[in-house]
Amino acid sequence: MDRSLCIGSAQCVHHAPDGFRLDTARQSHPVDPDTDANEPVLTAAESCPVEAIMITLAGSGEPVFPPEE
To answer: What digits encode the pLDDT tens for the residues 41-62?
Structure first.
């Protein structure tokens, strides 16, 4: 999660309420940074208007989302 990009739209909380929380500054953060990228988390990442959510493979760190251009 790149909190410097987060604009506080709360789309991540809407799509994956068990995966993300907004702090008092309305910045999103994952409940557990090492969580599995289940369907709600992937939907949250895809819904982020500024692509602040990054998903990588455990171990290798290979990016899963956002896709490399």
So the answer is: 999 999 999 999 999 888 888 8
What is the CB neighbour count within 10 angstroms for residue 49?
10
Beta strands in 1-69 (DSSP E): 20-22, 28-30, 55-56, 63-65
Q: How far apart are the first and last CA of the chain?
A: 19
Helix (H) or strand (E) holding 11: helix 11-15
CB 42 within 8 A of CB 55: yes
Question: Strand pairing partners for 21?
Answer: 29
* Distance of alpha carbon 45 from alpha carbon 37, whole angstroms: 9
Whole-structure pTM value? 0.83
Helix %, strand %, coil % of the chain (to 5): 20, 15, 65
